[in-house]
Amino acid sequence: MNDVLARLRSLQATDLPVHGGRTLAYVYDSGLTDVDEVARTAVAAYAGSNGLDPTAFPSLLTMENELVGFAANLLDGPETMVGTVSSGGTESVLLAVQGARDAHPEVAKPNIVVPSTIHAAFFKAAHYFGVEARVVPVGPDFRADVAGMSAAIDSSTVLVAASAPSYAHGVVDPITEIAAVAAARGVRCHVDACIGGWVLPYAARLGRSVPAWTFAVEGVTSISVDLHKYGYTPKGVSLLLHRTPALRRPQYFAHADWPGYTMLNSTMQSTKSGGPLAAAWAVVSTIGDEGYSKLSDEVFQAVDEIVAGIEQIPELSVVAQPDSTLIALGTSEACDPFTICDEMAAAGWFVQPQMAFGGSPATIHLSVSAATLPHVEEFLAALGSAVSAAVASGPVRVDAEVVAFIESLDPDALSDDDFDGLLAASGLVGASDDGELELPTRMAEVNAMLDVASPRMREALLIAFLDRLQRPTR
């Protein structure tokens, strides 16, 4: 057993750190070691429990209902509000789209109306469930265009969605206006608050300016909110909340016409570990309302200090004044975001590159956590040094022949030979004689290559790359 655990520790040593406030994407860190210990204990205690049948594991049902009750108080939920625990924001979004579609079996070709900044999970849902996604360009402030979304709604629209906040830019869409437009047409309105749902209410209590977005807004019919983000719980827990039970009912799946047990599911999953739910309940119960208020105060202090610090770095700018805890950074022509991300990684900080889109250049994404606050000064120093290094080396340029090669490819017919050529050009092929694929230590050139590709080509390339990575170890 000791050998196995030692192997686990060795493998994990190459991963990004999940604690310490230095990973500004993918993970969210409260900085509270006692809370982390409570979470680990709860996961272990319920790792073998199965949320498939609440009559067999009633404790899980109790914890789920208590978490939904906490969310109801936080998000201005009416007495009729109900909710379900899912495995994450993507599953919550999938369920919201699936439920909206199945609520209207009379619609032959259903569609959803979304701004261009909506999370990619909505496109995944549209793909899975055969729903058209009508994408409306956002305004210059990166917020949803109410008039454009209104014009896109028709008799086959089953759902309108908006963000609180959007992931790429950290701004809250005009939910009040969007919900009113949807309600006037008799269409459901979903708010994707997976990022902001557990922190924006506290921002408002702290006196920060937050656009209205909760169930207090008439016309909002459902909200998704992740506990494993600013609820600071272990991964694998989100909530999908509906204004009424009737709105949730199409989400359920039941099947009795087979010789086994009657299958009854409230989410996409059947069998699901009780560990993440128990950990979320334990963490929320431990931190409590006052604790979350304190953590929110800390994370917004960090956001404000980072924004102020960026103003002192001439080559950087804040793309949009953040409404929440997410910050998008733009760069001047003197440097590029991909090199800055590499330099930050070398200094022990992970910041996330975002590709060019819709005429806007590539940016750098920061998801700020409460645990980042004590390290803001160190972060800004590292960022300044990273920018200086990026300026000294100059922006990454993709060879014109590589650009031409990428542009000549058909993303729907990408061959192995095409992919091998791109791997060689990008440096993703290892130095061994067998050409084994390996993860590079620096990604600037790879990201620059991806940045010049069209979104469809980028998808095809990354699918092919992931397929090569996911091969059995024999």
UniProtKB/TrEMBL annotation:
Swiss-Prot/TrEMBL keywords = Lyase, Pyridoxal phosphate
Instruction: Say if the entry is tagged with keyword Calcium.
Output: no
Please report the organism this UniProt entry assigns to the protein.
Nocardioides daedukensis
Q: Which Gene3D superfamilies match?
A: Aspartate Aminotransferase, domain 1, Type I PLP-dependent aspartate aminotransferase-like (Major domain)
Cofactor(s) recorded in Swiss-Prot or TrEMBL: pyridoxal 5'-phosphate
Pfam family membership, one: Pyridoxal_deC
Q: What is this protein called?
A: Glutamate/tyrosine decarboxylase-like PLP-dependent enzyme
Q: Which GO terms describe its molecular function?
A: aromatic-L-amino-acid decarboxylase activity; pyridoxal phosphate binding
State the family named in the UniProt similarity comment for this chain: Belongs to the group II decarboxylase family. Sphingosine-1-phosphate lyase subfamily.
PANTHER family tied to this protein: PTHR42735, SPHINGOSINE-1-PHOSPHATE LYASE 1
According to the UniProt record, list the residues that bear N6-(pyridoxal phosphate)lysine.
K229
> What highest taxon heads this organism's lineage?
Bacteria
Mention one GO biological process in which this protein takes part, according to its record. carboxylic acid metabolic process
Q: Which InterPro entries match?
A: GrpII_AminoAcid_Decarb (IPR050477), PyrdxlP-dep_de-COase (IPR002129), PyrdxlP-dep_Trfase (IPR015424), PyrdxlP-dep_Trfase_major (IPR015421), PyrdxlP-dep_Trfase_small (IPR015422)
